[in-house]
Amino acid sequence: MQSAEAKLSKNSLMLVLRQYNLAVRDMEQTILLPSLLRDVPSDDELDCDAADESCPDLYDNYLMLKAVRNTVENSLVSTDDHKAKKHAALNKTLEPLLDSDPEALFRFHLRGLFSVMTDLTKKTQSLTGKYMDIIGETS
Amino acid sequence: MQSAEAKLSKNSLMLVLRQYNLAVRDMEQTILLPSLLRDVPSDDELDCDAADESCPDLYDNYLMLKAVRNTVENSLVSTDDHKAKKHAALNKTLEPLLDSDPEALFRFHLRGLFSVMTDLTKKTQSLTGKYMDIIGETS
Questions:
Q1: Considering the domain boundaries, does residue A139 fall inside one?
Q2: Residue A103: which of B15, B68, B93 has the nearest Cβ?
Q3: A35 CB-contact burial (10 Å; exposed 0-12 / middle 13-18 / buried 19+)
Q4: What total of structural domains would you count in chain B?
Q5: pLDDT beyond 90 at A108
Q6: Tens digit of pLDDT for each residue in B113-132?
Q7: Structural domain includes residue A54
Q8: Which family is this sequence assigned to (chains A, B) (predicted)?
Q9: For a Cys staple, B37 with which of A69, B59, B85, B103, CB 3.0–4.6 Å?
């Protein structure tokens, strides 16, 4: 039986970030020929036409997962983020809802970061498994 | 002149979280009689009627800042968060925008957490200064 403390510690943001780093390290050590992932469609993009060049393949996912890991490792928030405009628009949507309640905003982002990191860890493990399938090894 | 690395390290999420913890510790060590903050209106709530009991005073802010620090220190995301419903509604708003792009969602929450922690650190320092004014000491 798990203690209440052990259950809580599973929710630690630091632990979730560490698990993600480990999953990406495992992915990098397994995927020795990332180019084999090129043109393999990602399951996540079901409504994406495989012939469409803008449609991300597994190789794009591989690069994205590594880029996120680099940001996590350095814990840096780049001020010239290329997606800053998108964020600005989102923040605009949130403003009237949360501007007067910084505690709610804090909990919202902490919870959101926790959730997206858990999701990205699963994606990393899934991608590693797919590579094993491609090269014909049982994972 | 600052090096590029030094500039970047200022943006570290870990550093921002640590600065917040230090600001709250300073606040706790300074504010020996928190009850003096009761019924002192908060500048943040300009459109709030001071006679209204639901209107937060500086004492409420003091408790909120400490609660956030406890969450930061433990880095825990409570699953029975009393504001979970509010978050669910917000996530619903974000879903169509970000569901297909976990990297954007990750950067959005990382940037958001960084921004709200910087804001809360300023609020903590401001509250400590107001307490000094109340007891008649120069901060």
A1: no
A2: B68
A3: exposed
A4: 1
A5: no
A6: 888 999 999 999 999 999 99
A7: yes
A8: Belongs to the SPOT14 family.
A9: B59
